[in-house]
Amino acid sequence: MGDSIHGVLGICHVANQACPLICYKSRILFLPKGVSVMNICVIGAGYVGLTTAAVLAELGHEVNCIDQDKHKIEMLNNGEIPIYEPGLKELIYKNYNYLTFAESLDGYIKRASVVIICVGTPSWEDGSTNLCYINSVIDDLSSRINSYKTIITKSTVPPGTNEWIYTKLLEKGVPPQLFNVVSNPEFLREGSAIHDMFHADKIVIGLRPDDQQSLSVVQEMYSGISSPYIVTSLNGAEMIKYASNAFLATKISFINEIARICEAFHVDVSDVAKGLGLDPRIGPQFLQAGLGYGGSCFPKDIKSLEQTALSKNIQPHILRAVQTVNDTQIDIYIRKLRLTLDDLPNRKIAVLGIAFKPNTDDTRYSPAERFIRELSESGCIIHAYDPKAKLDDHHRPNVIQKTTVNEAIHEADCVFIATDWEEFKQLNWSEVKQLMKGTIIFDARNCLNREKVEQCGLHYIGVGRG
Ligand code: UGA
């Protein structure tokens, strides 16, 4: 079957609107008025790029996903998905005929009307954003644009970056009538990225002041997703993204600081979080005290926003404090473990959780992994387990990754919950007690039912829980 549209097969009526039925790549689609199948290039096949590509293919578009990582592209072309993200594999398989994976834009860029940039934006040593991958996308695009493209940036970039992308493309000789630049940051959470994209609470669009047409291109691309649009300037959209992540990280550090105070007054921080969360002005989310935030976004984005503020001589007091709390959270729990268990170097600790949060295999800036690394310095034996994530560091003789929970907790003096996977919440605590040597359950994510644990004769310690 070719990949062109084979004429209109008939007409159906949707919401009193006559919609042509078309056959496209062996799929029968109906196109509401004004909606067409678009040819889209997604550059970058990480969490954001793959999720975006799969969702846009599901919405009916033809999507080419480009990544310079040869191995990743080979995997994708062999039906292997390089990351674990619930539902992603199924969605890619379902839309395999409408997705291509390639190393180079050549052969794809000509036909694309939309290009979506989803490459990584790592940090420089000082915390500011390294735009080297964005830069190389600009180089790749500038030599290949020969018909009109709407260039959409989804990568998280500091305010001013999309303006800079526009200027760079002009400087490299791309005629202004052949492109426009749009900022469309993503708000996907790893572990629920597909759901978050289909059920976005908002779609943020940043446009250049004289851009009359990009909004309708983006709306057409997302038709099928019903979300309110926030339309602002390029800088405005970039700021919304940073401010969102900074605010969420602030909530986490706030509750972690409150947990420290609760502990001193024998107050359970979970009760305090419940009380706070019921106030609609505050809301219940992101008030779970624990080992602190991690992942590929919050640590990097807060630092980047801090540097952005400093570059304009603005002192980012709150952003600094948020990071200070987060950076010291693990030390507190290592100190607490030392106080709870005498002779730590001769103990065996089962650490449950390696990923930075549940439902992902991602260990980037994982507090759980950092905890394992720092705890291992004490010389104790660590048996780590995670349902999906692998330990990066294989060089510590006292750290062993086990393949089941039971293997990890066998003969352990203490079980330490470092990531709040559902599997750990569902553990049978009587069985755990039988397998362990000691009785201490350290719930560093406040995710367990304390009573259930204690009923089995185990000693429960949480975060700021009196
Ligand atoms: C975050 C944002 O939630 C997304 O909206 C955003 O799109 C994404 O960053 C991004 O910029 O790409 P994500 O990094 O996937 O998503 O993870 P979160 O669910 O936000 O969790 C971040 C960290 O905070 C995790 O380590 C988690 O364990 C921790 N956390 C979260 C807490 O310690 N307490 C909480 O109450 C909530």
Structure description:
This protein is an alpha/beta fold and 466 residues long. Helices cover 37% and strands 18% of the residues. It has 16 helices and 17 strands. The chain has helices at residues 47-58, 70-77, 88-94, 132-142, 161-171, 193-198, 214-221, 234-264, 269-277, 298-311, 317-340, 367-376, 405-409, 422-425, 429-435, 450-455; strands at residues 5-14, 17-24, 27-30, 39-43, 62-66, 99-102, 114-117, 149-153, 179-183, 203-207, 229-233, 348-352, 381-385, 399-401, 414-417, 440-443, 459-461. Strands 6-5-4-7-8-9 form a six-stranded parallel beta sheet, with helices on both faces. A six-stranded parallel beta sheet has the order 14-13-12-15-16-17. A three-stranded antiparallel beta sheet has the order 1-2-3, with no helix packed on it. α1 (47-58) packs across α3, α8 (234-264) crosses α10 and α8 (234-264) packs parallel to α11 (317-340). The longest helix has 31 residues, at 234-264. It is globular and about 70 Å long. The model is unreliable at 1-8 and 13-20 (pLDDT under 50).
Which labels suit this protein?
globular, 6-stranded parallel sheet, binds uridine-5'-diphosphate-glucuronic acid, 466 residues, alpha/beta, 16 helices, disordered N terminus
